[in-house]
Structure formats: C-alpha cells, structure tokens
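Tokenised fold entry reproduced for everyone:
>
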Amino acid sequence: MKSAFFLIPAVVLLTVAGCGPKTTQSDGTAKPPTPGQAKLRIAVIPKGTTHEFWKSIHAGADKAAKEDGVEIIWKGPLKEDDRDSQIKVVEDFIVDKVSGMVLAPLDDTALRTPVSEAVKSGIPVVIMDSALKGEDYTSFVATDNFKGGVLAGKRMVELLAGNGRVVMMRYQEGSASTHEREEGFLSVMKNEPAIQVVSSNQYGGATTESAQKTGENLLARYGTGPGRVLDGIFCPNESTTFGMLRALQDGGHAGYVRFVGFDSSPKLVDALKAGEIHGLVLQNPYKMGYTGVKTVVAHLRGEKVQKRIDTGASLATKANMDTPEIKELLEPPRFE
C-alpha cells in the first residue's frame, strides 16, 4: 500500500490548484523567482513548540517550503496557554512585513483582532489546526475535530459494550479544536442511555504536569481498578492524554480503566502497545503543516484555494497500530 505521506503532494495540488501560474518545474523542483522578485517569507505560528504534534507540523511546513522555494519562519509560544505571547508574535510579524502567515490560534476569540490587522496590512493568513471566529482568513486547514471526537466516542462505546461510567477531562477554555472534539465525544455518549458521564467539566490545562494533577484528582474522586466505579476516560489532546496516562500509571491503575486519547507521541504509542491506552484518535500534523504552507503560497501566487481543507482523522488501536497507514500516523516525521 502506498505511503500516506507520499500521497500528500498530489492531494494538496488537487486541493489548492486553480488556474494560476505553476510554481514547480517539470522535474518537480521549485520554480526560481523571476529576476527582481523577492523570495516569499511565510511565518508559521504554532500554539506551542514543545509537544510532538507541533514538531510534525514543523516538518510538513519545512517540506512544503523547500518544494515551493519559499522561506518559513517558525515561531510560537513555548506553552499552549500563553495567549499574550502568541498575539505579540503575530503583531511582530505584521511589523516585519512577512509575505503570509500560517497560524494555529491559541484562542478562537483573542487572536481574531491581530489576524484582522494582518489581513488589513496585506498579509494573507491561513488558519490551521484550530478554528478562529469570523471569516477574516484565506483558508482553514485542519482535522474535522467534531468527527474526531465522534470516533473517540464510538470506540468508548465499543470498549464498554454500551454500559459504564465515564470521565472526560477537557483541555482548556478558548481552544476551538479540543472543544469540538469534546462535543463530538459527548454527542455519542448522549445516545447511550446505559453510559453515564460522571464528570465533563474539569480542565487539564496546557501542560502534562497540570493535566496529571487534574487526572489524579479525578481518579481520587471516582476511583479505578477492579471493583471500582470508573469504567472509561477520554482526553482530547496529547498533553491531557499523557498527563492522565501518568496519573493512571503512578496510581497502579493503567490498563484497568478503558482509556481513549487523542494524538500521538512515542510514550503514547508505547502505552497503546502495552494495553494501557485502548484507542488514540490520530490527526495528520505533517500533512497539516505541509498543506498550510502550500495553501498560503498558492494564494500569494494567484491561485484559487478552498476555504476549508480537512486533513483527516483515524483511530489507532492495539489491533491496527502496525498497519502501514496507522503506523505512519503514529510515527510521523518530526522536525528536530
């Protein structure tokens, strides 16, 4: 079966191509700028820079930049709860007069004004990963996050045979992507009368440490293990999933409670293999970074682009994790 990543260029070209000028030569390499034409400079702004997810976004963005002969400038806040820092990064890039931006907004409301200012300054913005309120952007490149939450919910129903008590630990307020995943998961639970969601209003926060603390508090309140009252847990992103995993491992409960998470990292893959995690909903961050840069470059070169581009979601389990398609999503390229 062909590699999912080898298929990315073809998919993106079909997605963003219009009737504008071609940007590559017959051998597939980037077309050099015409004499006097400045090299495009694209700012790529993640929510944070520490999680494995963003390293894969960076790798995809870097590949697209090399193919199209543009420069990317990678800069974002260290932690995913630093809205002020991300706003300042966007504002600084406006002053720097970059050619375009690809932004994963930390907050769907707080980043609306700086994005609008960028557009007014003639800098097109492609939103990736997490939605932004309003329509003041060129394109939105992301997972269908509600659908991802539905995948997690269906996996939980399967694991519990439609009967049990479940906890959902949220990520943080203002994050549109994780909110949609949470709502997708809850939409499935609402149609299962024998499954009771005993907690769905606790936030893990932006770090593994804060998520572990919230996880420990939830486990202390509801209990896990043989004969205890908690049957299932869902977490909507990498840091909450890893924080809850550590809480389960430290308490000696890992593997007893049915656990479905979101995203991938080496330690989460190990836990899936060991039966401590029973499902991971996977995005395609490499494709997301690649498509984000491709889309803003296509727009800058006069090509028509789609307003919404879905980069896909899949479910990994212990049973399918070694298949080629899932293995590449569990272990995507990462920028080091």
User: Anything to note?
Assistant: Residues 1-30 have pLDDT under 50 and may be disordered. Residues 52-68 form the longest helix (17 residues).
